[in-house]
Each structure stands twice: as structure tokens, then as C-alpha cells.
Amino acid sequence: MFDRSIKIAPSILSADFANFGQEIQAIEAQGADWVHVDVMDGHFVPNLTFGPPAVKAFRPHVKTFMDVHLMIAPVDPYIEAYAEAGADMIVAHWEAGPHPHRTLQAIKATGTKCGISLNPGTPANVISELLDLVDMVLVMSVNPGFGGQKFIPSSVQKVAQIREMIGDREIHIQVDGGVDPTTVGPLVAAGADCFVAGSAVFKGGSVDNPEVYGQNIRAIREAAEAAQKTT
Ligand SMILES: O=C(CO)[C@@H](O)[C@H](O)COP(=O)(O)O
Ligand SMILES: [Fe+2]
Q1: Is 60 helix (H, G, I), strand (E, B) or coil?
Q2: Considering only CA atoms, which of 104, 107, 171 is closest in space to residue 137?
Q3: Count of CB atoms within 10 A of residue 71's CB?
């Protein structure tokens, strides 16, 4: 059955880079639903993060669901490597190349779940012909590349447009960038169900003080569920 419940996916871009195994275990023990891995190439975005060997090293620590957000161009040559590394879902950017349909077919061929992401400057309607291929649409609510940026409010309207386009298809809408207890409510009302949060989850906590992660996750979830009740 399709899971329409609120899902919180902490981004390990905000974790302690010397301690990923324990950080992943801590966020899961404190209520994370998914673990979000941000892959950056220093070309599509001005930052560099995790190659397939790093993702493979994270895999045994993830007991929930690992979504891998590929901010790389070209993307097609690396899809199989990230699938083999253990991604449960691979998300590619619409802007990563001229053939997003082919990219999504390549992701599906690996057997992992499949998502398409849109930058803040990209309108919703470009994915109308791609929706039958995806399990999730990721709406970027900051320009990709870094954690800790300010939420872009027009993302709410884009989520609503995409929810309308999806109709009765079983597709998640994930929002990524600047999500916290103050920004999540309108996103839920617009139709999103999955929320990436980096700084809002990891701020103030550590593997020695993991209860703070729990408090931070609960604060986002409570704000989201409150909005869901009134929608
Ligand atoms: O994909 C990205 C950034 O490009 C994100 O996943 C960020 O890591 C989210 O961080 P916050 O905005 O929640 O701090
Ligand atoms: Fe991300």
C-alpha cells in the first residue's frame, strides 16, 4: 500500500564527517524515517561530496531507507555504481542533461526506486511527460550545493502544481532545503509528504547527545502532522 504518511529524511551532509556510521545509527534511533545522501560533483553544483565507495560504506548502517540525491552532470554513467553501492532510491536532476527520460529509464533498470528533482528556477511543467516513470518528485527549495540555506517560499506553489499534475498516481513529493518546523506546514498543505532536513535535524546535537536529534525530528514531524490534520 502506498505510504502517504509524513517522512523525515535527515541529510547526512550536516553530520559529523568523521563519524558517519554512528551518526546514521543515531538519527535512525531518534526517529528518522529515511536517510538522505547528497552527492555533489563540483560541476553541476559548486561542492564535492560522496562517491559510490562512500555510499557503499554508509549502506550497512542504514536500516530504514537510503535515498541518494545525485547533483551530478553527466549523471547516466554513474547510475549503476550508485545502485550497486546500495541506494534504495536514486534521484537525478531534470537539469542534469538533455535526456531525463533516458536517465529515469536507466535508474529503473537497476531495480532501485526512481526520482526526479527540480531546481528552484525550473518550472513544474517540464516533468509532465516523466511522471509515469517516477516514484518521487524532489522539489529543491534552495539552490543545490550546500546545507543551511534559506528556504525559497515559491517552492510551496510549485509543490501544489506538482500535486495537481500527479493526480491519483502513487508518487511521493519530497522537499529539500531550509525545511524546519516553521516552513514545513505550508508544504504539507500543498501536498508534500517527505521532508529532507539537514541543519534543522543536526543542530545542537551529536552522537554523544543524540536526544537533540530526536527533539529536532519530532518538532518537524509535529508541525507537519498538525498541518496535515487541518488540510
Ligand atoms: O541537497 C541539498 C543541498 O543541495 C540538501 O539535502 C541539504 O543538505 C539540506 O540541508 P538544509 O537546508 O536542511 O540544511
Ligand atoms: Fe539533498
Answers
A1: helix
A2: 171
A3: 25
Ligand nearest to the CA of 179: 1
Which residues lie below 8 Å from residue 21, measured CB to CB, with a gap of 6+? 57, 58, 61
Domains recognised in the chain with CATH numbers = 7-229 (3.20.20.70)
Contact call for residues 72 and 39 (beta carbons, < 8 A)? yes
CA distance 162 to 103: 20
Percent of the chain beyond pLDDT 90? 99
C-alpha cell at 86: 546500495
Q: Grid coordinates 509528504 are at which residue?
A: 193
Which whole number is the average pLDDT over 66-79?
98
Strand partners, 138: 117, 174
**Gap from CA of 71 to ligand 1 centroid (Å):** 11
Q: Which of 38, 41, 67, 193 is catalytic?
A: 38
My answer on whether omega of the bond before 74 falls inside 30° of 0, hence cis, is yes
Protein residues with CB under 6 Å of any ligand 1 atom: 11, 13-14, 36, 38, 69, 142, 144-149, 176-179, 196-200
Q: Does residue 67 carry a catalytic annotation?
A: no
d(CA 112, CA 154): 30
3-state secondary structure of 230: coil
In this predicted complex, what is the ipTM?
0.99
